[in-house]
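Subject: sequence -> structure tokens, single chain

Hey, anyone have a minute? Need the predicted structure for the following. Not urgent.
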Amino acid sequence: MEKDHDLARTFGAEAAAYDRGRPGYPADAVEWILTRAATDDGALPDVLDLGAGTGKFTAQLVGRAASVTAVEPDARMRARLESNLPGVVALDGSAESIPLGDDSADVVTMAQAWHWVDVPAASAEIARILRPGGVLALVWNVRDAATAWVRDLTAVMGSSIAEDFDTVEPPLGAPLSRDAYAEFRWSNPLDRDEIVAMVTSRSYVIAMEEGARAILLQNLDELLTTHPDLAGRTVFDLPYVTRVTIARAF
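Reply:
Had a minute. Here:
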């Protein structure tokens, strides 16, 4: 699927649905990321969360880092983040234009967003603000297709840019290079309304014409109502694999 950068700015129209339906991240993945940076005397790192959205990943950094700064280009998503996390500094900016000085962070995180960036420009900019020994963590939650009903859900939803992107070996630009990779398996419990919110918060669904969107939601309702693994449920445990790539400037 060809990248459409305009789609990256559609999420704000469904900020509430994004906040409600999108999953958080497993604590062991967050802890693993934060242990990868070299800090003086083992101190807690200063973390920058890029493309922070409504703060889904940012929230799990709070209390685990010396400081957490969020950068988000969509004003509506950023406003939601500020409401959710009033103690976090939230700035307007992007991976290609970070409003911080050189050597500002020990860890830069980017969850569900690297597939939107200009890789060479973003890599150079992140390397600029990373301190010596610092790391970039690229994170994706990927629905676990080993489960049959999840494959059927994906068939109903269609694929996104992220799902057609290499989230195991994501591209990097100089001077960043891949240093480590890990996967974390977990499940996210959702009720029916939260499943719908998860679907309607996706960029390509937001951009759909009304008729196509109505058909998609009808098919989703039929799946949740009639699928033999789902019929009669009020809570759906949606399995995920969280993929994390660590990069450093060498």
